Amino acid sequence: MALKIVKGSIDRMFDKNLQDLVRGIRNHKEDEAKYISTCIDEIKQELKQDNIAVKANAVCKLTYLQMLGYDVSWAAFNIVEVMSSSKFTYKRIGYLAASQCFHESTDVIMLTTNQIRKDLSSPNQYDTGVALTGLSCFVTPDLARDLANDIMTLMSHTKPYIRKKAVLIMYKVFLKYPESLRPAFPRLKEKLEDPDPGVQSAAVNVICELARRNPKNYLSLAPLFFKLMTSSTNNWVLIKIIKLFGALTPLEPRLGKKLIEPLTNLIHRWEEIPSLKVCHMLISLSSGMPNHSASIQVSLRGPLPINSMFVVLVKYLGLLAMSKILKTHPKSVQSHKDLILQCLDDKDESIRLRALDLLYGMVSKKNLMEIVKKLMLHVDKAEGTTYRDELLTKIIDICSQSNYQYITNFEWYISILVELTRLEGTRHGHLIASQMLDVAIRVKAIRVFAVAQMATLLDNAHLMTGNVQRKGICEVLYAAAWICGEFSEHLENPTQTLEAMLRPKVATLPGHIQAVYVQNAAKLFATVLKSQEGNTDSTAAQETSQLMIERLPLFVQSANLEVQERASCILQLVKYIQKLQQKDVEVAEEVIALFDGELNPVAPKAQKKVPVPEGLDLDAWINEPPSESESEDDQPKAIFAKEETKHSRTRHTEVDEKELAKVSWAEHATQIVYLYSGVYQEAPGVEHIPVVQIDLSVPLKVPGLPMSDQYVKLEEERRQKERVEKKKKDKKKRKEKGGGRRKKRDSGPESEEDITPAHMVDIVTEEMPEVQQICANRTKDKKSSKHKKKKQKKEKEDKEKKKKKKHHHHHHHSDGGGEESVQNGTMEEEEPLPVTSFSLSSSSKENDIQGNLQDGSQVVVSVIFENKCDSFLKSMEFNVLDSLNSKLQRPEGSGPHDGLTVPFQLPPGVSNEARFVFTVQSIVMPQKLKGTLTFIVKDSSTHEKLDFKLHFTCSSYLITTPCYSDAFAKLLESGDLKCSSVRLEGVSQPFHHLLARICFHHHFSVVERVDSCASMYSRSIQGHHVCLLVKTSGQTVSIDAKCDEPTLLGNVLDEIKQTFSQC
Amino acid sequence: MIKAILIFNNHGKPRLIRFYQYFPHVFLQTEDMQQQIIRETFHLVSKRDDNVCNFLEGGSLIGGSDYKLIYRHYATLYFVFCVDSSESELGILDLIQVFVETLDKCFENVCELDLIFHMDKVHYILQEVVMGGMVLETNMNEIVAQVEVQNRLEKSEGGFSAAPARAVSAVKNMNLPEIPRNINIGDINIKVPSLSPF
């Protein structure tokens, strides 16, 4: 036995230790891997030995190899063995190795729990310390749960060395085992006031980390931290506390005020320490709390040292702080513009990137050109593609932000974009391309200029395609080709551009670009033909055709399917054109017609708002539907909900393929749907799309590639001119006023709003006309004119509706039960009953009842009062005798018989409208409510009284609700509906008039109409379904009806009968 | 929180790595991932001039711009701390300085070689400065005191690499071409007494 030990120690002497291993590796530079693999074999041998010292040595070497990237997870168990050694020396090695190699998914960690617990309670504080340190690196939820109590006890250990470690590790424990936070927190709070500064600092550290995750819970500690901030001298702790307050002030604004004093004190204290430390604190201040105006004064001292430019670090941090301040107080940063621009010249990329971030928030109409000019200079100078790409995206971001808000001259912008295409090796070709497309389409005035620029680009395409490195930029050609093709009428020399587009080199471009080339070559061809056919000499036109026929086969052979397909189509077309040309037939007009129509920008969601053409049932099966065996949910509500979503999906079958192709790729390019206006001219509604088009100042022609700098100058001049003009106007105004006002208008630097843009962007907003409005107008037109009075009323009502629509933009026309108020048609009016009273002749009242329904039980009645007499009417009071079923809603506190004051007076000849809300319980029966209107005639100052009746018909409880034939069929099949029918004799109206009347008066909608038969649907405010089947033969109309409430149905049918008996 | 501390030389050779966060990777093993991070960080840091600022955004492997790299370059070595937004940049820069000064005190004129051959000791010193990614102590005197107490403790236990290793190294450094494996036990025994019993 003794011999074995001796032998072991001898062996050990010749084992390599860490230093030997390192030395060995350094001596085997050529075959390091091989040497290390032999070392690992040796280590494996050593680990097999019983001697713990040998094992510890091996583990120590493994730790080193782990650093070099060798997997040592196989030795995890040996590491645990070494950790459990009784000697500090070996224990430390073991814990170090464990902290380097173990992570949460290491399974041997499970075995360590008891060992760690033993070490934590070791009498030797360094054993405990080493265990805590190790544990902090590989603590798992299980370990945290099992050891939380032990660690908590250690937080009150006698030795500060252990206390601080225990406090610090608690954060890790909280992370893994959040339940431990509540019991541990009081003790943690206690440690904030520990006599040992190390423990104090650890506690601050932990609480700051916790507060960062959830600041709200730590507001109560603010006073404590406040005290610490004034008393502590440890800079590290102070920074942490200030950061913590930064997180707390947004939650408790009062804190900000309180902080000013101690903060300024701190700054004074630190100002005595030279340079770095001062900035140090200032910056942590500014970045800590940008949210409070009071701290801004303090924090703006942060950027100050930038001026001195002597500490790079401070520059970086100052910029960082500024970007935080910029979000809340943009003004205070804008004054540092020059400083920030200077930072762009810094050789440090970190600083330049920070400065770029800042610039984005700082641009205005006034300084945009200047800033971008600076940036362009940097683009030229920049080495390294990442930074240059960053610059490029920033330029485009800056210019295009919020719908090109800051751009006043788009020619300038186009030339900037063109200049950007000269960048080498950028990845952002597609970005530039999409900007070009967007601007060319949305800014009409710029097209002439843009086309000229794009033509030059196409001409010089070889510059972009020649170099392999420039792959990314050729995306620009995509935009260039499209713009030249689409707006070819603006081209100065279309033949040359056409030639450029058909060069053999084009075939080296990516497929999608070639496809655009081919398609747009065809467009150009059309334009060229048109211009050439005007001439007497027809050979030119034939030559152009010949050129196309010669060049296109190159594309027909393309490997790209899209290119091939387009090319062969166009080739055949051109061949046909050539044939016609040879017969001296003029074809240009017809060829142009192929590409007719102009693009209008349309909001992304606009398509939803295009009304479905009448008679087009989007849900009708084109072919026979497959047999449905699955049982559908027969709850009608669900059906309707489903239908609604279907309804919003509009399909355009009339769009021909070419248009579709255009639309879809334009969509790809810019995320905005462009529609050819020509296609939809007939469709009602499209012309209402608000497209702002204001073309200002005449564009200037700049030959060749433009230099954006020119525009800066031009822009200056333009603004100057505008200013002069404005001043003139002002002077005139003042003269006109005869010097009445002596107030001097400030003629100082022009304000932001004064700068008018040279070109306007078509900004497409979401505000679209509602489909329903159009429908309403249509029904009005169809309506045969009735009594004059009625028509007036109807107009009023239409106006009413429009007004209402303005308030309810999202107007779902079939939502009865929802919260939204639902428009309803008029209630059949009951003429004011002429109760004998002399004043009747002098005043009249129309009760135009707009059932505005809410909650299925409320009806809004709008009453129009018209004063027909010559006297002034005032103090009008409206009162209705409530029935059991229907009650007038009166303001709270008033009795059931009190009248409602009409909120206006009526001068002679004036009419006005008032609304009254009624609560209706049952809607199955029509009813009449008696009411009185009292008023005072001003001259005679007598009380007058007018009696009237309000007729609540059942139809007025119905809401026009669209329904689809399949849902309708399901509804009828469901069998819950009661049947009833009625016959009308002697109806001489055409069938569609009849339907329109039912729709209008009784709020039905036509579901389906076949010849002289139609199905109709409506829904009551309480959700009853009413279905009608209307048939006509000769003068007899039969109506079969189904409804889940027979009484309601009977009454509705009676009312329909009434309607037709009246005429 | 500090996510990682990396020390590597001008050629990117790691001298000390200390990850406080586990960076898992779909394909790579932990160690390979760590090496990738070192390589990426070295690439980012080494191309920067000495007179530019000491902060930059983290590489893609360690979470990009959410993390900052704060580094200092001393002669042949880069000390890089990867931290999240809760740490103050200048605070960490200060901490690096404290750490290096402590190393200097413990090793007496520290140089790269000290770090190469005594990686374990450097780790022990670092453990007194940063624990589990959080700053434990910034007071240099306190750090040095604790390190020295522990070294003494190790020595009192007979040392790990102390006496016997020194003896062995002495033998090895005699530049004997080959130390025969089977040395006469009697000879060696004379030297063994300095070894404490196991």
UniProtKB/TrEMBL annotation, chain A:
GO terms for biological process: anterograde synaptic vesicle transport; Golgi to vacuole transport; neurotransmitter receptor transport, postsynaptic endosome to lysosome; protein targeting to vacuole; synaptic vesicle budding from endosome; synaptic vesicle membrane organization. It is a peripheral membrane protein. It is found in: Cytoplasm; Golgi apparatus membrane. The keyword ATP-binding does not apply. InterPro entries: AP3_complex_dsu, AP3D_dom_metazoa, ARM-like, ARM-type_fold, Clathrin/coatomer_adapt-like_N, Mu_AP3. The keyword Cytoplasm applies. Its main location: cytoplasm. Residues 713-727 have a biased composition (Basic and acidic residues). Keywords: Acetylation, Coiled coil, Cytoplasm, Golgi apparatus, Membrane, Phosphoprotein, Protein transport, Repeat, Transport. It holds the Pfam family AP3D1. One of its GO terms (cellular component) is AP-3 adaptor complex. Residues 655-783 form the AP-3 complex subunit delta domain. Residues 728-745, 780-793, 801-813 have a biased composition (Basic residues). Residues 713-758, 775-851 are annotated as: Disordered. Belongs to the adaptor complexes large subunit family. Part of the AP-3 complex, an adaptor-related complex which is not clathrin-associated. The complex is associated with the Golgi region as well as more peripheral structures. It facilitates the budding of vesicles from the Golgi membrane and may be directly involved in trafficking to lysosomes. Involved in process of CD8+ T-cell and NK cell degranulation. In concert with the BLOC-1 complex, AP-3 is required to target cargos into vesicles assembled at cell bodies for delivery into neurites and nerve terminals. This is AP-3 complex subunit delta. It comes from Gasterosteus aculeatus aculeatus (three-spined stickleback).
From TrEMBL, chain B:
One of its GO terms (cellular component) is cytoplasmic vesicle membrane. InterPro entries: AP_complex_ssu, AP_mu_sigma_su, APS3, Clathrin_sm-chain_CS, Longin-like_dom_sf. Keywords: Cytoplasmic vesicle, Golgi apparatus, Membrane, Protein transport, Transport. The keyword Membrane applies. Its main location: membrane. PROSITE patterns: CLAT_ADAPTOR_S (PS00989). It holds the Pfam family Clat_adaptor_s. It is found in: Cytoplasmic vesicle membrane; Golgi apparatus. One of its GO terms (biological process) is intracellular protein transport. It comes from the Eukaryota. Residues 1-153 form the AP complex mu/sigma subunit domain. It is a peripheral membrane protein. Part of the AP-3 complex, an adaptor-related complex which is not clathrin-associated. The complex is associated with the Golgi region as well as more peripheral structures. It facilitates the budding of vesicles from the Golgi membrane and may be directly involved in trafficking to lysosomes. In concert with the BLOC-1 complex, AP-3 is required to target cargos into vesicles assembled at cell bodies for delivery into neurites and nerve terminals. PANTHER family: ADAPTOR COMPLEXES SMALL SUBUNIT FAMILY (PTHR11753). Belongs to the adaptor complexes small subunit family. This is AP complex mu/sigma subunit domain-containing protein. It comes from Gasterosteus aculeatus aculeatus. The lineage of its organism: Eukaryota, Metazoa, Chordata, Craniata, Vertebrata.
